[in-house]
């Protein structure tokens, strides 16, 4: 049976070896000695962005991170922390790298689970990797290729230069630049590495070793965005990227039954003559739904998680206080609320006489203009528990802007 990627049989997805063991000597001076793969961009080291793209391709079965030996334990701790906040859903292992890129790939191959059939080898200094490119490489592997590399056509005229003079002009229509990830069947790649060690052959990529073995290496179209961070000036690829605001939304829902309890409040406004509601707090169904929506914008769980009705501290508490706590939590998470749309569902009381007062008070609680808050009401035409006037419910949708995390180097 094919796996979820539609390319491989179950449990036969390739693993990816992410090479993050280099010293980056050409780049380190621009980053105060930090190797490029450990630069923080969008809140995570560069190597993590490649790992995320691998996971989102649906083609990869696991990850091997290859780090400098002196940093491996530190980076393992960082990986555990990263997985806590952004679980990639893939098993992983971290290993020590070698003296050269070729040695580091060999270390990664040795760490693959037994019986792994295919492997992807990727440079951690290519953080702009897309899941689509991973899929292209994997699709060619699934067709039976021993080796696959993504390539880009050369657009500049290429000269061969010797001792400061042009020796020849090369036909660019038969030339291409190679990228990673490069995909391989594990058996021929291991054989190619073994022969390279025996013959003391050094190569700048693994495809070259496979070529030396006499194996055919296939190509797929590369991705111009899949640039490699190599030289100090490449830092502009991180700094100059357009940083569009990130929009998010949250949805909230709450219900309270009518009965001997608390005077009805909606949006912080007491509704005279309305049925009482049974509740642990003040029973403001509208603010409870809105609080859940705010928490939803920040992916912070729900109102019951933070303000449980089993906690005596919240007995009779104003729902406006709970909303304020949720807003503070959202702000700490970089969330700025910009719009709220709320719907009250009840057979009684009539909401229209109180709608504008509710709307203005909610706008005040949220710190928004009244024009950015909408309050609606509806009945369910006698259907269900609200139709039988047994209770009241509310829906809320909150829209927000998430702060773009600053780059750090």
Could you explain the architecture of this structure?
Helix content is 29%, strand content 26%. With 409 residues, it is α/β, with parallel strands linked by helices. It folds into two domains: 15-239, Spore Coat Polysaccharide Biosynthesis Protein SpsA, Chain A (Alpha-Beta Complex), CATH 3.90.550.10; 246-402, 60s Ribosomal Protein L30, Chain: A (2-Layer Sandwich). The strands form five sheets. Strands 1, 4, 5, 6, 7, 10, 11 and 12 form an eight-stranded mixed β-sheet that branches. Strands 13-18-16-17 form a four-stranded mixed β-sheet. Strands 2-3 form a two-stranded antiparallel sheet. α5 packs across α6. 38% of the residues are buried. The model has no long low-confidence stretch (mean pLDDT 90).
Compose a concise summary of this entry.
The chain is an alpha/beta fold. It has helices at residues 46-56, 72-85, 101-110, 131-142, 186-199, 206-212, 236-239, 285-297, 303-306, 319-332, 355-366, 384-387; strands at residues 15-19, 40-41, 44-45, 62-67, 92-96, 118-123, 147-153, 158-162, 165-170, 176-178, 182-185, 217-221, 246-262, 265-266, 269-270, 335-345, 373-378, 391-402. The chain is elongated, with a radius of gyration of 29 Å.
- What's the architecture of the largest domain, going by CATH? Alpha-Beta Complex
**CATH level 1 name of the largest domain:** Alpha Beta
Enumerate how many helices there are, as a single number.
Answer: 12
Q: Per the principal axes of the C-alpha atoms, what is the gross shape? A: elongated
Biggest sheet architecture: 8 strands, mixed
Strand content: 25-35%
**In total, how many domains does the architecture comprise?**
2
Oligomer: single chain
Rg estimate, integer Å? 29 Å
SS-based class: alpha/beta
CATH topology type of the largest domain: Spore Coat Polysaccharide Biosynthesis Protein SpsA, Chain A
Percentage of residues in helical conformation: 25-40%
Which H/E pattern describes the elements? EEEHEHEHEHEEEEEHHEHEEEHHHEHEHE
């Amino acid at each position: 049976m094919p796996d979820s990627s539609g390319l491989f049989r179950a449990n036969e997805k390739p693993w990816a070896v992410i090479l993050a063991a280099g010293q980056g000597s050409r780049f380190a001076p621009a980053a105060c000695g930090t190797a490029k793969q450990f630069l923080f961009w969008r809140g995570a080291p560069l190597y993590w962005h490649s790992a995320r793209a691998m996971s989102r391709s649906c083609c990869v079965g696991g990850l091997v991170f290859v780090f400098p030996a002196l940093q491996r334990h530190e980076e393992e701790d960082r990986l555990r922390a990263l997985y806590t906040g952004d679980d990639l859903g893939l098993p992983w292992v971290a290993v020590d790298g070698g003296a050269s890129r070729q040695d580091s790939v060999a270390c990664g191959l040795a760490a693959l689970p037994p019986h792994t059939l295919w492997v992807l080898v990727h440079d951690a200094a290519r953080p702009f990797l897309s899941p689509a490119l991973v899929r292209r490489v994997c699709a060619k592997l699934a067709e039976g290729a021993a080796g696959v590399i993504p390539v880009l056509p050369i657009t500049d005229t290429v000269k061969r230069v010797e001792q400061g003079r042009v020796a020849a002009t090369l036909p660019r229509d038969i030339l291409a630049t190679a990228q990673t990830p490069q995909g391989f069947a594990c058996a021929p790649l291991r054989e190619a590495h073994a022969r390279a060690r025996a013959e003391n052959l050094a190569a700048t990529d693994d495809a070259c070793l496979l070529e030396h073995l006499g194996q055919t290496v296939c190509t797929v179209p590369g991705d111009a965005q899949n640039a490699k961070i190599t030289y100090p000036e490449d830092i502009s690829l991180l700094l100059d990227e357009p940083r569009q605001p990130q929009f998010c939304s949250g949805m909230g829902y709450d219900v309270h039954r009518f009965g001997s309890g608390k005077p009805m409040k909606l949006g912080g406004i007491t509704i005279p003559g309305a049925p009482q509601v049974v509740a642990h707090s003040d029973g403001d169904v509208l603010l409870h739904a809105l609080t859940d929506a705010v928490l939803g914008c920040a992916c912070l769980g729900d109102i019951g998680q933070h303000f449980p009705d089993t906690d005596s501290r919240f007995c009779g508490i104003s729902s406006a206080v709970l909303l304020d706590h949720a807003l503070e939590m959202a702000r700490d998470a970089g969330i700025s609320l910009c719009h709220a749309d709320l719907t009250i569902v009840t057979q009684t009381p009539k909401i229209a006489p109180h709608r504008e007062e509710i709307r203005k008070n909610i706008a005040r609680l949220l710190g928004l203009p009244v024009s950015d808050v909408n309050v609606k009401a509806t009945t369910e035409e006698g259907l269900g528990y609200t139709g039988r006037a047994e209770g009241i419910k509310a829906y809320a949708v909150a829209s927000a802007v998430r702060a773009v995390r600053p780059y750090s180097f």
